[in-house]
Amino acid sequence: MDDHPTRRSVVLGTLAACASAASAAAADDDDPRKEKRPQKGDLLVFAEGDREGQTITLADIKLGEPPVHAWPKDAVNAIVRDGSRLNEVLIVRLDPDELDDDTRPRAAEGIVAYSAICSHAGCPVTAWIKASEGNDDVFKCMCHNSEYDPRRGAQVVFGPAPRRLAALPLVIKDGALVIA
Q1: How far apart are CA 69 and CA 91, in angstroms?
Q2: What is the rounded average pLDDT for all residues in the chain?
Q3: What order do you get walking across the sheet with 43-46 strand by strand?
Q4: Residue 74 CB-density burial (10 A; 0-12 exposed, 13-18 middle, 19+ buried)
Q5: Mode of pairing for the β-strands spanning 147-149 and 137-140
Q6: Distances (CA, A) of 156 to 22, 144, 148
Q7: Burial of residue 126, with CB atoms counted within 10 A of its CB: 0-12 exposed, 13-18 middle, 19 or more buried
Q8: How far is CA 142 from CA 58, 72, 121, 125, in A?
Q9: Closest Cα partner for 92 from 72, 71, 81, 108?
């Protein structure tokens, strides 16, 4: 008997391996833990760019720079909670002295985290611009022009949004941003 694989057996073996890998990837995408809301102890990881999926550290968030889009990641089982767009988070570093009394306790060295989903119609909050009124930079939903001030708990400062963005309290643990 010939120990050399036939062309057919190699092709079928390759197809079986690809199908198995695709099935495993699909199973990972269907993991209900990916949709679970952010939890205490979750790390924050980059949601986009060349560092997508990497843990965000204190050094990654610079004062005065635009917000970073992030996902929570279960620190125990390494599940990135990107299964629901409602889990996307905006992270920005501000001067701690500019934060109001309600916002300061949720911040970690001036870094604050808020939902990236507008409270008006559920559009993504994508812009970081000068406020329509005043000189501060604010988050802006480009769908209907709602603006949120991250220094004041992401309260609505312009537009039709009925309430502020949901806030996530942060701590720094081993140099990484962690949900408190």
Answers
A1: 6
A2: 87
A3: 167-168, 111-115, 89-93, 68-73, 43-46, 176-179, 170-173
A4: middle
A5: antiparallel
A6: 44, 13, 5
A7: middle
A8: 28, 24, 11, 7
A9: 108
Both tokens of residue 99? Answer: 């934060």
- State how far the alpha carbon of 70 is from the alpha carbons of 143, 145, 178, in Å: 21, 22, 12
Residue 10 burial class via C-beta count within 10 angstroms: exposed 0-12, middle 13-18, buried 19 and up: exposed
Question: What six digits make up the tokens of 38?
Answer: 């952010």
pTM recorded for the entire structure: 0.81
Largest Cα–Cα distance in the chain?
83
Convert the pLDDT of each residue in 75-119 to its tens digit: 999 999 999 999 999 999 999 999 999 999 999 999 999 999 999
Q: Name which of 44, 62, 61 is nearest 53 in CA terms.
A: 44
Q: Where do we find the tokens 């309290």?
A: 169
Pairwise CA distance, residues 179 & 168, whole Å: 7
Task: For residue 91, give the nearest of 137, 60, 133 by alpha carbon.
Answer: 60
Query: C-alpha angle 129/132/134, rounded to 5°?
Result: 90
